[in-house]
Amino acid sequence: MTAARILREGLDFGEGPRWRDGRLWFSDFYRHAVYTLDESGQDEQQVLAVPGQPSGLGWLPDGSLLVVSMLDRKVLKLIPGGSEAQEYADLSGLADYHANDLVTDAEGGAYVGNFGYDLHEDIRTREIPVILADEVTGVTRLARIAPDGSVSSAAEGMRFPNGMVLIDEGRTLVVAETTGLRLTAFDVTADGGLSNRRVWASTAEQMVAPDGICADPQGGVWVSAALGNAVVRYAEGGEVTGMVETSQIAYACALGGSDGRTLFVMTAPSSDPHEVDGRGLGRIEVATV
Questions:
Q1: Which residue ranges does the record assign to the SMP-30/Gluconolactonase/LRE-like region domain (predicted)?
Q2: pLDDT-derived band of residue 83, with 50, 70 and 90 as boundaries?
Q3: In CATH, which of 3.40.630.30, 3.40.50.2300, 1.10.10.10, 2.120.10.30 is domain 2-288?
């Protein structure tokens, strides 16, 4: 097991990290903005204020930035060089609760997950094992935004669809089903549709509730363990092939850096806004993998 080191402190709740153009891009839920940092964790710059609480990030082929606005269940678009985002897609007809993570494909399409229901309120009233055993509450769908901006359901019956990654040169979409304790894979059709749904890896044996995920060039998927202080690497089929220990709960991760081997991890003591909103307890931690 590798131990991460703290790169930066003072976030409220970091999410959606992405490495692009030599910088780390990320959302901070409760500072209500998207930021970038250099590789050393310095030179923080605010890219965009998002009053509706930002989460997943992605880019269209023309370089436009897409940002999930969680509370109003929309996706915003910021054109290159722009200062104000415009509404790109309205997910309120498909997202049953807060919109969440996002991934874009090479053709300009995007997939967006959502909470499904108020998980934080559920955690205040029920024990975690009871929630995880409940296969009905919070079941929702994965949304697809086509390159023309139209919205449709890509997959039904998802349990808290969260972090996503496209692998196999975009032919396979892997989705973290947080309360389902699994990574679910789909074949991606030419028009962006999803088929051949299957379990890519079960995370139940390790009690890893998969949150944000990222893939490495060797075909492994790094999984932020939202119930623990770790990021766990899985191979297809479910074998655990690596682990990075963090100082607090790991909620999202991205692979990048100048060497392409730096794992950036967004951590916090909790995801409950009552415990972290405005408190500056969030961190970015890093490890070489």
A1: 13-268
A2: confident
A3: 2.120.10.30
User: Of 108, 102, 112, 101, whose CA–CA distance to 64 is shortest?
Assistant: 108
Proportion of the chain in helix, strand, coil states, percent, rounded to 5: 5, 55, 40
Q: What pTM was computed for the model?
A: 0.96
Alpha carbon 283 to chain centroid distance? 16
8 A C-beta contact, residue 202 and residue 177: no
Q: Count of CB atoms within 10 A of residue 105's CB?
A: 18
Give the span between the Cα atoms of 256 and 261, in whole angstroms. 6
Is the Cα torsion angle 233, 160, 198, 182 positive or negative in sign?
positive
Contact 228, 247 (CB under 8 A): no
Buried b (16+ CB within 10 A) or exposed e, 74-102: bbbbbeeeeeebeebbebeebbbbbbbbb
Q: How is the chain split into domains, by residue range?
A: 2-288
φ and ψ of 42, to 5 deg: -110, 180
Report DSSP state, residue 29: G
Distance in angstroms (rounded) separating the CA atoms of residues 92 and 126: 27
User: What number of CA atoms fall less than 13 Å from residue 216's CA on the CB side?
Assistant: 23
Reported as a single tens digit per residue, the pLDDT across 129-188 is 999 999 999 999 999 999 999 999 999 999 999 999 999 999 999 999 999 999 999 999
